[in-house]
């Protein structure tokens, strides 16, 4: 079902991609930023309509989302954490009751940011701007931490939901807004409504209860939108091999799918609103037992200022949000890698250059990480937990070279430094789980990801790709022996792009 939706989504983007008429994403970035003004003027004129805002309806949807999830957890799943009482709510109102929880990696560092996107898009889907939607994400997260679970309010959950929900939510908002189209009728309209709702449930729900999903108008969307900004889509189907420097452990093989979106250009002078440029990737691995999602990453531009422009190049500096999630299952008891950057923001410098058939770019990002996670080597704790959370910083460089339209090379170098300061040894092991507060293993961890990727075009839309990922990790423990690991993630596959 998911792959069917992906292919239908690709068809919906096809007309837009063909109208731009470029064979590579870089061609479109560079033309948008240096050579030409943005096109699609007819769509721009059509979309210029006053956006109506419904803050109270957004508030009701945030409250309703929390109550609906709580009811499902309690009466359908009969989950212990959903046994909320007035006593637990009263206890959770105290600021001194906040703690670090020990839920599994994907729950704390992927599911909670996605949960935050639901609050965020309840506001965005009701006409509110990026900045206006932030309080809804924060308040929705606070409401859940205080009254959505019988456990004490979680520090890491609140940070991941309220901050990580912003980039996740805005990307889903922008992508789904290209799928929904009030001008369409019949079968295509039905398909667009279904896929758009799968991508962005909050906006799909808003369209349903307001009747917009069934109403045909002469404008594409009732929301703040700009269809002159190009959105490009690709999906890569590949065979994946995971290997690590562990004695007696053989490589693991499985299928993998990588879905990528590129929206706008980081050096386009026309960027005025948050996320007029973003790059997002989602990795799916059907062979994984713990999580269907193997990786997710977002880099989104909040503001930008020009630094230097010549006939062949443009350089800008800006503010950016970052989100990263990488996770794998264990291979015969050994986990290859886990790393996350759930709540992060920083500055970035983007440089784009073109000389005849040669096109190249480089982007450098320096980020403060309020909340992140990294693999721990020791699991002899009460929860068999295999990761630690902490704060720190990251340094990323993303570069690429294209020669014509045949060969494209990309290289990501990403260093993440995280520090954890409250571990199992610092906590009373006799405490009940609702009072047991730990960040994981105390110490400092440096994770370095190096990801080269080469693409060879087979036709306008089809390509062959070989993305590699090397993960080097050094964990300096306070109470345990230091560890160093190296992991190789090799993929080879065929992709389709628009």
Please give a structural write-up.
This protein has 498 residues and is of the alpha+beta class. The chain has two domains: 41-214, no CATH class; 232-497, Lipocalin, CATH 2.40.128. The protein is 30% helix and 36% strand. It is built from eleven helices and twelve strands. The chain has a twelve-stranded antiparallel beta barrel, surrounded by five helices. A hairpin with an 8-residue loop joins strand 3 (278-284) and strand 4 (293-309). Helix 4 (55-76) packs antiparallel against helix 6 (105-124) and helix 6 crosses helix 7. The relative contact order is 0.12. Residues 1-11 and 13-48 have low confidence and may be disordered.
Layout: helices, strands, pairs:
Elements: H1 2-20, H2 25-35, H3 41-47, H4 55-76, H5 86-92, H6 105-124, H7 130-147, H8 155-162, H9 165-179, H10 186-199, H11 201-210, E1 231-244, E2 252-263, E3 278-284, E4 293-309, E5 313-327, E6 338-355, E7 358-375, E8 387-403, E9 407-420, E10 443-457, E11 462-477, E12 483-497
Antiparallel strand pairs: 1-2, 1-12, 2-3, 3-4, 4-5, 5-6, 6-7, 7-8, 8-9, 9-10, 10-11, 11-12
Oligomer, anyone?
single chain
* Sheet/helix structural class: alpha+beta
* Biggest sheet: strand arrangement: 1-2-3-4-5-6-7-8-9-10-11-12
Q: What spatial form do the alpha-carbon principal axes imply?
A: globular
Written as H for each helix and E for each strand, in order along the chain, the element string is HHHHHHHHHHHEEEEEEEEEEEE
The N- and C-terminal alpha carbons lie at a distance of 21 Å
Q: What helical percentage do the residues reach?
A: 25-40%
Strand content: 35-45%
> Which regions are unreliable across 5 or more consecutive residues at pLDDT < 50?
1-11, 13-48
Mean pLDDT: 88
Question: How many domains, as an integer?
Answer: 2
Compute the number of helices.
11
What is the architecture of the largest domain at the second tier of CATH? Beta Barrel
CATH class of the largest domain: Mainly Beta
Major sheet: size, sense and barrel closure? 12 strands, antiparallel, barrel
| Quantity of strands, as a count | 12
- Within the CATH hierarchy, at the fold level, what is the topology of the largest domain? Lipocalin
Radius of gyration: 23 Å
